[in-house]
Amino acid sequence: KLFFTDYGNAAKVERCDMDGMNRTWIVDSKIEQPTALALDLINKYVYWVDIYLDSVEVVDYQGRKRHTIIKGRQIRHLCGLAVFENYLYTVNSDNLSILRINRYNGTDVQALASLDNAKEIRVYQKRTQTAVRSHACEEDPYGMPGGCSHICLLSSSYKARTCRCRTGFILGSDGRSCK
């Protein structure tokens, strides 16, 4: 799945398949400017920062179990969001500090460090990487991902895929080759 935020005409948090199909709103009320987003892949939770409401909130992948982690002036101007173990990590764009927020109670907020011009944050740790299983976009014997001549996108499951073409090409009738 692909998760993303949008604060155009109607602010929302959405999800879709990697090929763009099955687009679903998972949060579309009491939300103004969702910017940063992070996933808890193990427990299947979506966290986001709303910079207009000065809040960090969470829902499950279906948009249920919504609650506010932290709200208020203390977390103004956040950008970037990452989740690891019991904490959320984010960047305060006002003073360029990295903040650590307890994701279960929201009361334990600590400034860890300051960085020049930081706008995003990522956690790279072996435990945050999911195990790779075989999938529909693996290279075929001819070196083509999922048998697609240009781009292979996972679809509704890791066993299904959709082929797409680079700009200027159209997908052939076989659904795999680009012309």
Automatic annotation (TrEMBL):
SUPFAM superfamilies: EGF/Laminin, YWTD domain. GO terms for biological process: canonical Wnt signaling pathway. The keyword Transport does not apply. LDL-receptor class B repeats lie at residues 1-43, 44-87. One of its GO terms (molecular function) is Wnt receptor activity. PROSITE patterns: LDLRB. One of its GO terms (cellular component) is plasma membrane. Gene3D superfamilies: TolB, C-terminal domain. Keywords: Lipoprotein, Receptor. The keyword Lipoprotein applies. This is Low-density lipoprotein receptor-related protein 1B. It comes from Acanthisitta chloris.
